[in-house]
Amino acid sequence: MPDKITVKAPSSTANLGPGFDVFGLALNAFHDEVTLTRQDSGINITTDGNIPTRPTDNTAGLVVKNAKRKFKIRDGIKIDIKKRVPAGFGMGSSAASAAAAAVAVDRLFELGLDSDALVELAGSGEKASAGTIHYDNVAASVLGGFVIVRDNPLSVIRIKPPQSLRMCVAVPSITVPKKKTQASRSVIPTMISLKDSITNLSSATSIAAGFASGDSHMIGSSIRDVIVEPARQHMIPGFASVKRNALKAGATGVAISGAGPSVIAFSEKGADMDEIAAAMAKGFASAKTRCQTIICKPSVGAIVRG
Amino acid sequence: MPDKITVKAPSSTANLGPGFDVFGLALNAFHDEVTLTRQDSGINITTDGNIPTRPTDNTAGLVVKNAKRKFKIRDGIKIDIKKRVPAGFGMGSSAASAAAAAVAVDRLFELGLDSDALVELAGSGEKASAGTIHYDNVAASVLGGFVIVRDNPLSVIRIKPPQSLRMCVAVPSITVPKKKTQASRSVIPTMISLKDSITNLSSATSIAAGFASGDSHMIGSSIRDVIVEPARQHMIPGFASVKRNALKAGATGVAISGAGPSVIAFSEKGADMDEIAAAMAKGFASAKTRCQTIICKPSVGAIVRG
């Protein structure tokens, strides 16, 4: 068994509009890298990122701690995290570190976990960051591509996205509240009308069919959310302009990325992605907000580095 | 232009569990046949079925009436309906007649309607029977295969189902109330929890992905409905036994077919469908109810005969 391993895991976008708490998509916009090294005892964390380093407050740390207990690993483990996915912007940052840590601990100690078990282990780390466990981002970050998460028991469907799918993510430069996930969940109604649920279900099933049949246009044009977006959009300065501008510039669909505040536009090969990026930046600018735009594609999942 | 045309349209099952008002699947269990013949004036209906023959009370009649007005058809039309889909049992009976009539009038008068326009015309006939328009059954019956219905504006996604998919429908011999669709809709809650909507959405998106990727097992095993089935199952004598028995006998999923009272079990090539049929009949028998069981496959849509 090796003494050391490095795993790289991608950023991800959750929900894709109507697929709240169910859909995830790995994006090659950013990657976290987690290196695990055996040591005599304990868990120690170092990182170049602005994240907690106490193992129970760190998603990668919690994954390693949970794995040590569950799989009776006696060695100590040093964790080094190269943090590249911006934290707290709806890009699956905590999930990327958790996914990389789960795959790294599986390989380093030859645990032989299957896909669902890896996602479950990675998800156990999300508790450090989000307070509750949601598997949409970790499933995408571990497995890559598009995922449909089914809970109780956890089982993830993984679908390879069409090659022609293109995205542009706009990450606004705003101060994110400390407990952002809780704050952004608290605005969502707990009861909804059956009518709205049918509207979202028809859109979400069209998105799933689009991924499964490799139809990028069906994916983008089906992104329509009458439940979560109306409740959350006030938390994103200029959202309506960002969306309108992106659609005008050729995006086929626009959604809040995960819990926000990043916004993601979907389109397909042949679209002028630079124009879409500029249009989104202009939308944020109309609300006196700067943003970083990243043109990206679906990503493979967490992989061991050379 | 010919003077006469006969179109055959299949029965269908709507909802498939969690896809309430969105999913439809054409079934080769039963077919209605509609023959249109030009005549000097007016609309006259003859049928061997126990259905109304006043044009505005008959789904095929209403389709023809609406088409005459919308497309300025001056000829009179005689409609003959061979009724084979049992009416009022959740098998898309009114939709089958409407679908056959829509395709027949399109061909007889060379209207050149596209898929969505044909579905919309067929749906306009459903008002005669259901009181409101829902496109799930008519879309399946017109287009065949599996359909995802998106409303406002109407747009239907049609997916060819996997060859390996097998179904068994059990049609119980019970007296169906006159206004069955309204009665069975009235028990469904108008407000639901976000949590339940997420559960149904994850199941429904898995079903859609199953159809689009040709995975019969994914389709059947994803049929799980925590919203409509709990509200409606009391209307079907022995439903819990029918479902349990079918699953024990090898069905991968069981749902109320449309608004019921028929129950549909899903499985795949290689399963003992006769055993599933017998198990369902035994379930109904436990509630002192006889039933007809039909083992079937997905069907093509409405087609011109000979």
Mind explaining what this structure looks like?
Two copies of one chain form a homodimer. In chain A, strands 1, 2, 3, 4, 5, 6 and 12 form a seven-stranded mixed sheet that branches. The two termini of chain A are 16 Å apart. In chain A, helix 2 (93-108) packs across helix 4 and helix 9 (239-248) packs antiparallel against helix 10. The longest helix of chain A is centred in the middle third of the chain and has 20 residues, at 194-213. Chain A is globular and about 60 Å long. Chain A has helices at 59-70, 93-108, 115-130, 136-143, 180-186, 194-213, 216-221, 228-232, 239-248, 273-285; strands at residues 4-14, 23-39, 43-47, 76-82, 146-150, 155-159, 165-172, 191-193, 253-256, 263-268, 291-296, 303-304. Chain A contains ten helices and twelve strands. The first copy, chain A, has 306 residues and is an alpha+beta fold. Chain A binds chain B through residues 18-23, 148-151, 157, 159, 188-195, 197-213, 218, 222, 227, and chain B through 18-23, 148-151, 157, 159, 188-195, 197-213, 218, 222, 227. Strand 8 of chain A pairs antiparallel with strand 8 (191-193) of chain B.
Please give a handful of descriptors for the protein shown:
homodimer, 306 residues, alpha+beta, 7-stranded mixed sheet, 4-stranded antiparallel sheet, 10 helices, 12 strands, globular
Low-confidence stretches of chain A: none
Which percent bin holds the helix content of chain A?
25-40%
Give the assembly state of these chains: homodimer
User: What percent of residues of chain A are in strands?
Assistant: 25-35%
Q: What is the number of strand segments of chain A?
A: 12
Q: Biggest interface: chains and residue counts?
A: A-B, 40 and 40 residues
Distance between the termini of chain A: 16 Å
Give the C-alpha Rg of chain A.
19 Å
Shape of chain A: globular
The computed structural class of chain A is alpha+beta
